[in-house]
Structures are given as C-alpha cells and as structure tokens.
Amino acid sequence: MAKYSVNDCPIIDLGKITGERRGSITVVENDGTLPFDTKRVYYLYDVPGGSSRGAHAHRELSQLIVAASGSFQVTLDDGRVKRTFFLNRPYQGLLVRPGIWRDLDDFSSGAVCMVLASDVYVKEDYIRDYQEFLDYRKQL
Ligand code: TYD
How confident is the model at residue 1 (pLDDT cuts 50, 70, 90)? Predict the structure, then answer.
C-alpha cells in the first residue's frame, strides 16, 4: 500500500444539478470521479452533540466522507501532520486515503455523515489503537 499523507486527501467537488425551485441533486458514479469504485455506502446519524466518531485508520480502504445534511468536523492525521476539515456541503466530499487516522466531531443537530467506501466491511482492515497506527505508518 502506498504511503499517503494528509495532503493526498482533498475535498472533491461532486457538482450539483439544481432545479428551479425544486431543490438539488448530487450524483456520484463509478466513472473516475473518485480514485476508487464504490462497493459500500453507509451513513452516520443521530450523533449526540459533543460525541465523536472515527478514531481509527484503515489499512486498505479508501473513503469519501460527505456531510449529506448538517455539518461536522473531520481531522485527518498521517502520523506526522494533522489537518482539520469542516464539512457542510452535500455536493462536496473529503477523500480519505488508506493509512490515514480520522476523528470526526462537532456534529450539528440532524447531521448525516454519508460515506462511500471502496470495499465491503472488513473488521481486520481497521487499526483502532493509535500507537499501532504510528507503528504501521513507520513500516509502510
Ligand atoms: P465504526 O466504523 O467504528 O464507526 P465510526 O467510525 O463511525 O465511529 O463502526 C461502528 C460499529 O459498526 C462497529 O461495531 C462496526 C460496525 N460496522 C459494520 O458492521 N459495518 C459497517 O459497514 C460499518 C461502517 C460499521
């Protein structure tokens, strides 16, 4: 697996189709918009104010994190540099490359965090211990 840094994790503009007084649509297809094909979609919601999520890295998984509704903060960490992003636009997504630690917090009330993932759920792909994450980064 390549050794990605937080600078390899951009906000991707997904575009939107806005109907006159009828709202908007954003579409993501497996057409090269993302550097992976989506195999799984999941979403977080009902997150109580003051709670945090994430606190892990993935070995192989790539993800796009979208604030489908409301807002929240995502802090990415490559073991050397941390970058914090405020997500509140349903037509933008934060690309999270493999081997990057992420913490999500500051959820607004009613926030929906939608995640497009490059693979199905694999428990063994998670690194949930921060020291183990740092050791993993060193051997990449
Ligand atoms: P986790 O990925 O740790 O959530 P977050 O990063 O948002 O805090 O997952 C929380 C729980 O849900 C954990 O027990 C694993 C389970 N889970 C699945 O069973 N399938 C999935 O696709 C995901 C994302 C989580």
Answer: confident
Query: What pLDDT, in 10s, does the model give residues 17-53?
Result: 998 899 999 999 999 999 999 999 999 999 999 999 9
CA of 108 to the centre of ligand 1 (A): 20
User: What DSSP character marks residue 28?
Assistant: -
Please indicate whether residue 83, judged by its CB atom, sits closer than 6 Å to ligand 1: no
Give the CATH number for residue 17. Answer: 2.60.120.10
If one counts the domains in the chain, the total is 1
Other CB atoms within 10 Å distance of the CB of residue 19:
8
Is 58 one of the catalytic residues? no
Average pLDDT, rounded, for the chain: 97
